[in-house]
Amino acid sequence: MLKLNVKELRDRKPTKEELASVSRLPIYIVLDNVLDTYNIGGIFRLAEAVTASEVILCGESETPPSSRIHKAAVGTEEWVPWEYFPTAVEAVRRLKSANTRIIAVEQSEKSVPYMEIENCKLEIVNSAIAVVVGHETDGISKNVLDMADIIAEIPMLGVNKSLNVIVSAAIVTYKILESFKK
Description:
With about 180 residues, this protein is of the alpha/beta class. The protein has seven helices and seven strands, in the order ααβαβαβαβββαβα.
């Protein structure tokens, strides 16, 4: 398997053959109005690291090509398929129509601790999974939360109420990976 360092990722685009050779997992990462381009770039790095099928950018989220996304993504936005939807509702509706399970990462009265995702009555191993993260201040839109199969929350033990979007997405996505490896 090809392994590239940061300089190599930044300086070269993948060939069609290299892109076709990547075996992707049925994981989608949906950004619901994520505005910070460093978060968007970080999500591309995460998606590439876990061989996600696609990053889905929604609403006001900036899209590649963008020098700011490229800087944070270190070129991984060239390696990961991505798509844009005007709203996250439209993206989630399309994913659900393809029997993709939706896991929203958000604090909510309906949320479960992220460690319990696999204990929820949700078929993870044989299904595509979409991890949805939201706006840095406002979170995931209510309509998308209403469409989610699970709302997963990361416990906050200190005085801070929340984690950065990329950190939250990474924690939940790697938890989902555990289910794929069983």
